[in-house]
């Protein structure tokens, strides 16, 4: 086995063979060939031998596109990119592509990159003119998970595996034209979402394997591109004759029918149950169950086949149909399998499905119980039970008081019979330590679990031998009751000694403090340290501050408060400052919240106008905007909710939408903000712009905005952004749609999360889920997804443009793709018609190509504030 020399030019006609020999110019002696290669190809360079049977196709370090035209086959050895390019006579574009132009047919599979980091960057692969490339399968493509476009043209491709693209969920276009494919199954593209599959100019046969393609074409599906209805197929009995696939009659095959014997089944946990599914069709269907839900219990599958006669209305035999029956036998069924079980029947033409609703009566079972922390410490527990269970908590074997000031109970249903709950601690952690017991019970049984809650460095005086154990299932030992023993004879001695200790401590403390005062006057460092030690020692928990050997719990370190800038304009009663010095999220009881009307809906949930009773000490009712969150059963979504709430608690500024708190006692979870009367700034500007009657002919005429008004709006947004920058907070989505307007033209920055749905045209979708506001993004954010305070400055410049353009969309005349081209090539937005030149210069200072060259937001705020104050001297009213 050999590796071709790293700098062998294309003129040498190097070729690798699986036998391990390298042939140059057809010589049969590999030593002679190697010598010729050294002299002819390299001069002073050389080719060295290794154990690689074929060439290695290597991506550039930052490559996003690979064009492989005549590239060699896959290998198991990695060469540096530069050496690989030169060895094949390829042209290398270090940060874009690898393009190879060879005349020989040496590709038999997609080249493999052993460096997974490089492979992850590949989005496009193009292979052409390789007659030895006859098969495409899953193994060739699995190392390219980010692949978006695959092109294989004019090759000998005949076979595409049914699971070829299983690992390429982001793929958007598969171009297999001009090959020799006779059949491709629908399973090859199953689950890929919106995709374009180009398969014209192949050798498709007009039989059942092409029926699914025909059905898609007749349904006007766009999956096969604009010329899908022109796809031709070869007649089975005469391959030289072709017809349009859409008009050819294909008999004897159709999508199978499927049915389950019983649409519902009821059984007790640990019992045995058999579920039967039957599929009928031509060709014979494969019938199978989705067993993902039943993995916790042993099961087996039994499949049988038969032929069923078909008769017409008069009872005359008209044909037969093939039947496949599959039984799913569950031995000792587990409660986690509660819910629908799905059965599939599929053949060459397509797939059908049917469900069985499986009900498993399950006694409660606590599967996990552990400590955790989001923005509060909590106990997290998971329970499996059906039907729903009753639950209760005990601390040190006494019923836990339901005090909303100390505890918050959260209970979520994650599946038909699975539940996840949290017991959140809202009190100081020193007061909640102890032994916590959860008891769950339904009509089929009872279960309990006990967890000791402790915190490092926080002592607690819990009795390790609890006296009152709650009810437990049979088989678990009970703790015997025992009264504590006290010797009454020693009580007077204890009292006397205690009084003496207190008197000595008080006298000693007074003497020491007087001595401290004297020493402090002389600035004695040692005396000051002693005074500090003595003073802290007299406070509860103070002695621990000077005990270097003691481990201090993380919850006692005020991480947030040391970093947050105090704002005197923001009332203290909208946050709860924990006794340990850490800012925590305020919890608002659900019964205090009333809904008035819906304000909108987004992917996250809905936003309502509502009221909260006694939110502040001096107001019996406060108007609020309530953001509801759905799909909170998913851990990741709940963590996002927690992070958002904790973040909003710490953002306190007159130009940031005020965050009141959260409500988590039940579904849906809710976040409460102050209500801003006039909604988002974008609509506010449009309603007062010259095109307001065009946008909404029925809208009432409102007075236009003056330049003074526009400057006041701009200054407030700049003020809010200056505060965010001082907190090292990057907004990432600053736009007028994410600013809100209140009474007296008060503007605040805030995002209810609806903008991605209401203003969908402002966002550019990347992949399936990511939506980017590319019209507000600087080049480094578009190209490299880099978001910084400087990228927010660029976005602020675009917001200024929106304000003085009275709500117009930036680059409104261009598509998203064109905007990307304009911004990345250095083009900038033009000056709005009524915008003063001084303001446009501020915009330009925000749009410098290099982030470090952009004006700091503090400077921008000062400039706008200056113009706002001086406006009356030189700025006329907008007509």
UniProtKB/TrEMBL annotation:
<keyword id="KW-0393">Immunoglobulin domain</keyword>
<dbReference type="Pfam" id="PF07679">
    <property type="entry name" value="I-set"/>
</dbReference>
<keyword id="KW-0732">Signal</keyword>
<feature type="binding site">
    <location>
        <position position="627"/>
    </location>
    <ligand>
        <name>ATP</name>
    </ligand>
</feature>
<keyword id="KW-0472">Membrane</keyword>
<dbReference type="InterPro" id="IPR036179">
    <property type="entry name" value="Ig-like_dom_sf"/>
</dbReference>
<dbReference type="InterPro" id="IPR000719">
    <property type="entry name" value="Prot_kinase_dom"/>
</dbReference>
<dbReference type="InterPro" id="IPR020635">
    <property type="entry name" value="Tyr_kinase_cat_dom"/>
</dbReference>
<dbReference type="InterPro" id="IPR017441">
    <property type="entry name" value="Protein_kinase_ATP_BS"/>
</dbReference>
<keyword id="KW-0675">Receptor</keyword>
<keyword id="KW-1133">Transmembrane helix</keyword>
<dbReference type="InterPro" id="IPR001245">
    <property type="entry name" value="Ser-Thr/Tyr_kinase_cat_dom"/>
</dbReference>
<dbReference type="GO" id="GO:0030154">
    <property type="term" value="P:cell differentiation"/>
</dbReference>
<dbReference type="GO" id="GO:0004714">
    <property type="term" value="F:transmembrane receptor protein tyrosine kinase activity"/>
</dbReference>
<keyword id="KW-0325">Glycoprotein</keyword>
<dbReference type="InterPro" id="IPR011009">
    <property type="entry name" value="Kinase-like_dom_sf"/>
</dbReference>
<keyword id="KW-0829">Tyrosine-protein kinase</keyword>
<keyword id="KW-0524">Neurogenesis</keyword>
<keyword id="KW-0808">Transferase</keyword>
<keyword id="KW-1015">Disulfide bond</keyword>
<feature type="domain" description="Ig-like">
    <location>
        <begin position="256"/>
        <end position="359"/>
    </location>
</feature>
<feature type="site" description="Interaction with SHC1">
    <location>
        <position position="570"/>
    </location>
</feature>
<dbReference type="InterPro" id="IPR001611">
    <property type="entry name" value="Leu-rich_rpt"/>
</dbReference>
<dbReference type="GO" id="GO:0005886">
    <property type="term" value="C:plasma membrane"/>
</dbReference>
<feature type="binding site">
    <location>
        <begin position="599"/>
        <end position="607"/>
    </location>
    <ligand>
        <name>ATP</name>
    </ligand>
</feature>
<dbReference type="InterPro" id="IPR050122">
    <property type="entry name" value="RTK"/>
</dbReference>
<dbReference type="InterPro" id="IPR008266">
    <property type="entry name" value="Tyr_kinase_AS"/>
</dbReference>
<dbReference type="InterPro" id="IPR020777">
    <property type="entry name" value="NTRK"/>
</dbReference>
<feature type="transmembrane region" description="Helical">
    <location>
        <begin position="490"/>
        <end position="513"/>
    </location>
</feature>
<dbReference type="Pfam" id="PF13855">
    <property type="entry name" value="LRR_8"/>
</dbReference>
<keyword id="KW-0597">Phosphoprotein</keyword>
<keyword id="KW-0221">Differentiation</keyword>
<dbReference type="InterPro" id="IPR013783">
    <property type="entry name" value="Ig-like_fold"/>
</dbReference>
<keyword id="KW-0547">Nucleotide-binding</keyword>
<keyword id="KW-0217">Developmental protein</keyword>
<feature type="domain" description="Protein kinase">
    <location>
        <begin position="593"/>
        <end position="864"/>
    </location>
</feature>
<dbReference type="InterPro" id="IPR002011">
    <property type="entry name" value="Tyr_kinase_rcpt_2_CS"/>
</dbReference>
<dbReference type="GO" id="GO:0005524">
    <property type="term" value="F:ATP binding"/>
</dbReference>
<keyword id="KW-0418">Kinase</keyword>
<dbReference type="InterPro" id="IPR032675">
    <property type="entry name" value="LRR_dom_sf"/>
</dbReference>
<keyword id="KW-0677">Repeat</keyword>
<feature type="region of interest" description="Disordered">
    <location>
        <begin position="455"/>
        <end position="478"/>
    </location>
</feature>
């Amino acid at each position: 086995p050999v590796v071709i020399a790293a700098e062998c030019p294309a003129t040498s006609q190097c070729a690798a063979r699986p036998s391990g020999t390298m042939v140059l110019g057809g010589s049969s002696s590999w030593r002679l060939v190697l010598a010729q290669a050294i002299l002819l190809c390299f001069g002073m360079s050389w080719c060295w031998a290794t154990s690689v049977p074929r060439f290695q196709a290597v991506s550039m370090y930052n490559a996003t596109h690979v064009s492989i035209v005549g590239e060699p086959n896959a290998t198991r050895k990695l060469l540096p990119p530069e050496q690989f390019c030169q060895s094949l006579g390829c042209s290398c574009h270090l940060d874009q592509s690898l393009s190879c132009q060879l005349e020989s047919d040496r590709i038999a599979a997609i080249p493999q990159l052993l460096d997974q980091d490089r492979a992850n960057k590949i989005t496009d692969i193009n292979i052409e003119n390789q007659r030895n490339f006859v098969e495409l399968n899953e193994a060739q493509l699995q190392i390219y998970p980010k692949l978006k476009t695959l092109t294989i043209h004019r090759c000998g491709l005949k076979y595409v595996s049914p699971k070829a693209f299983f690992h390429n969920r982001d793929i958007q276009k598969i171009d297999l034209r001009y090959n020799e494919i006779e059949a491709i199954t629908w399973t090859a593209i199953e689950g890929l979402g919106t995709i374009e599959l180009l398969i014209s100019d192949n050798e498709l046969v007009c039989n059942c394997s092409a029926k699914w393609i025909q059905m898609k074409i007749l349904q006007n599906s766009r999956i096969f591109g604009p010329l899908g209805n022109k796809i031709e197929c070869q007649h089975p009995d005469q391959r030289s004759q072709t017809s349009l696939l859409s008009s050819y009659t294909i008999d004897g095959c159709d999508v199978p029918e499927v049915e389950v014997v019983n649409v519902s089944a009821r059984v007790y946990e640990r019992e045995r149950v058999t579920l039967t599914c039957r599929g009928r069709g031509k060709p014979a269907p494969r019938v199978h169950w989705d067993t993902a839900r039943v993995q916790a219990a042993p099961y087996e599958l039994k499949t049988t086949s038969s032929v069923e006669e078909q008769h017409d209305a008069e009872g005359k035999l008209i044909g037969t149909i093939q039947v496949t029956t599959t039984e799913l036998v569950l031995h000792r069924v587990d409660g986690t399998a509660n819910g629908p079980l799905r059965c599939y029947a599929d053949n060459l033409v397509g797939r059908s499905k049917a469900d069985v609703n499986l009900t498993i009566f399950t006694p409660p079972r606590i599967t996990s119980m552990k400590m955790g922390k989001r923005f509060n410490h909590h106990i997290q527990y998971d329970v499996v039970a059906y039907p729903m269970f009753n639950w209760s908590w005990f601390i040190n074997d006494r019923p836990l008081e339901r005090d909303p000031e100390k505890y918050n109970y959260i209970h979520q249903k994650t599946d038909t019979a699975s539940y996840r709950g949290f017991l959140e601690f809202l009190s100081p952690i020193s007061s909640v330590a102890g032994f916590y017991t959860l008891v769950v019970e339904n009509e089929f049984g009872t279960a309990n679990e006990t967890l000791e809650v402790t915190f490092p460095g926080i002592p607690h005086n819990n009795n390790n031998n609890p006296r009152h154990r709650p009810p437990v299932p049979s088989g678990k030992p009970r703790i015997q009751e025992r009264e504590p023993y006290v010797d009454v004879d020693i009580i007077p001695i204890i009292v006397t000694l205690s009084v003496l200790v207190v008197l000595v401590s008080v006298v000693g403390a007074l003497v020491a403090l007087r001595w401290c005062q004297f020493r402090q006057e002389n600035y004695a460092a040692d005396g000051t340290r002693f005074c500090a030690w003595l003073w802290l020692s007299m406070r509860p928990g103070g002695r621990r501050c000077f005990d270097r050997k003691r481990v201090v719990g993380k919850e006692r370190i005020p991480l947030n408060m040391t970093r947050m800038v105090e704002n005197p304009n923001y009332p203290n009663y909208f946050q709860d400052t924990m006794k340990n010095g850490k800012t925590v999220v305020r919890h608002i009881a659900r019964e205090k919240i009333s809904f008035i009307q819906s304000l909108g809906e987004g992917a996250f949930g809905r936003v309502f106008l509502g009221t909260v009773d006694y939110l502040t000490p001096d107001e019996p009712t406060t108007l609020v905007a309530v953001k509801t969150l759905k799909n909170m059963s998913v851990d990741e979504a709940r963590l996002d909710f927690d992070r958002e709430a904790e973040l909003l608690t710490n953002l306190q500024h007159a130009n940031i939408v005020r965050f009141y708190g959260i409500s988590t006692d039940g579904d849906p979870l809710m976040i409460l903000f102050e209500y801003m009367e006039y909604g988002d700034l974008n609509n506010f500007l449009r309603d007062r712009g010259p095109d307001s009657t065009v946008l909404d002919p029925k809208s009432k005429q409102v007075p236009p905005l003056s330049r003074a008004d526009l400057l006041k709006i701009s200054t407030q947004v700049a003020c809010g952004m200056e505060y965010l920058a001082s907190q090292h907070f990057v907004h990432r989505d600053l736009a007028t749609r994410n600013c809100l307007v209140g009474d007296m033209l008060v503007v605040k920055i805030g995002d209810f999360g609806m903008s991605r749905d209401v203003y969908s045209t402002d966002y550019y979708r990347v992949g399936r889920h990511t939506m980017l506001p590319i019209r507000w993004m600087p080049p480094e954010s578009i190209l490299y997804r880099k978001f910084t305070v400087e990228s927010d400055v660029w976005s602020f410049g675009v917001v200024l443009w929106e304000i003085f353009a009275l709500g117009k969309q930036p680059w409104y005349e261009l598509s998203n793709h064109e905007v990307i081209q304009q911004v990345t090539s250095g083009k900038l937005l033009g000056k709005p018609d009524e915008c003063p030149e001084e303001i446009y210069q501020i915009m330009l200072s925000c749009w410098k190509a290099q982030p470090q060259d952009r004006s700091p937001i503090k400077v921008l705020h000062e400039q706008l504030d200056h113009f706002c104050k001086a406006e009356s001297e030189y700025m006329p009213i907008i007509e």
